[in-house]
Amino acid sequence: MTTALVTGGAGFIGSNLVFELVKKGYQVTVVDDLSMGLKANLAEVMDQIEFHEHDVCDHEFMHQVLDHNFDYIYYLAAVASVADSVERPYETHRVNQESVVDTLEYLRVKNLKPKKFLFTSSAAVYGNYPELPKREDSRVQPLTPYAVDKYASERYTIDYGKLYGLSTVAVRFFNVFGPRQNPSSPYSGVMSIVTKCLLNDQEFTLFGDGKQTRDFIYVKDIVNALIFISETPASNEVYNIGYGHQNALIDVIHQYEQAAEKQLKIKFAASRAGDIDESLADVTRLTKLGFKPQWGLENGLREYWEYASNNG
Ligand code: UD2
């Protein structure tokens, strides 16, 4: 039986990935300390997986787990908040970088060779350079501890692969939306906040004029891409994951309103400090590998609303 470890498997993207891996018949192990994730996210599959509520920074514990010798390791555990990394740079560094390096090091010293070690990074590594679209070899400008740690962990992932014969990849997520994204912080993914406001008839504060663009991608296409990449011979490379389409925030909100058949109450406010005007992924590398998204923005928004209105 194919085995997979998903760190951060109780989180937004992690839980969506675990569902799909279970559906494929994989034996899935999850390590998540529930600092951001929720056990409830995995309720439907809990009896089919091995779940450890544990911190990935506990190296001894992680070594015991890694001794299972997994076929695939999906490393999603992270403090996925830029704001938090600015508040607590060392604590978040331990999670976002040290734990990754320790895992790679353990694989090296124990000569464990998963079919793939996949590390999940972020478009945050590109920072504020105006150059668009962002190619994997575009200039990076990590401006926060979060981005620095993501970039460093990517490099460790790739370099451990090259130096020690491990099959590794790192992926950079653009703006992901979909079921189980947590809207609890003002810095949560914008579409999760829009969803919460639509469901509860609350006013949504739009920072800026709404013309800022992002490459929004539905979480199910993200999950498909993760599985696809891990099952190809791709090795020791970085991949952007987005649709390669640039959409203005206000247009995406209008599209979502149509799917929801509801109008959002919008209050416009000044742009947030550090907000970027435009973001767009160049996905040539992923496309060349043979990946085609199945959902797309419109279907993704429709399905997200259907889920939210039934589960919200
Ligand atoms: C994403 C990441 C962030 C960092 C950044 C680097 C997410 C959730 N955030 O931020 O962690 O990596 O990329 O570039 O992946 N907005 C509103 N109202 C709200 C919330 C957001 O108008 O209540 C706006 C926000 O000001 C921005 C847009 O919506 O212009 C998207 O915000 P976001 O936080 O979802 O994503 P982004 O790309 O700014």
CATH topology title of the largest domain? Rossmann fold
Strand order, largest beta sheet:
3-2-1-4-5-6-11
Roughly what is the average pLDDT, rounded to an integer?
Answer: 97
Question: Major sheet: size, sense and barrel closure?
Answer: 7 strands, parallel
- The proportion of residues in beta strands is 15-25%
Q: Which sequence of SSEs, written as H and E, runs from N to C?
A: EHEEHEHHEHEEHEEEHEEHEHH
What is the architecture of the largest domain at the second tier of CATH? 3-Layer(aba) Sandwich
* CATH C-level name of the largest domain: Alpha Beta
- Distinct bound molecules: uridine-diphosphate-N-acetylgalactosamine
DSSP, total strands = 13
Structural class: alpha/beta
Give the CATH H-level superfamily of the largest domain: NAD(P)-binding Rossmann-like Domain
Question: Care to describe what's here?
Answer:
This protein has two domains: 3-176 and 217-242 and 282-289, 3-Layer(aba) Sandwich (Rossmann fold); 177-214 and 246-280 and 295-311, UDP-galactose 4-epimerase, domain 1, CATH 3.90.25. The strands form four sheets. It has a seven-stranded parallel beta sheet with strand order 3-2-1-4-5-6-11, sandwiched between helices. The protein has a two-stranded parallel ribbon with strand order 7-10. Strands 8-13 form a two-stranded parallel sheet. It is of the alpha/beta class and 312 residues long. The longest helix is centred in the first third of the chain and has 21 residues, at 89-109. The mean pLDDT is 97. 40% of the residues lie in helices and 18% in strands. Uridine-diphosphate-N-acetylgalactosamine is lined by residues 82, 122-124, 175, 186-190, 193, 205-208, 212, 214, 249, 272, 275-276, 279.
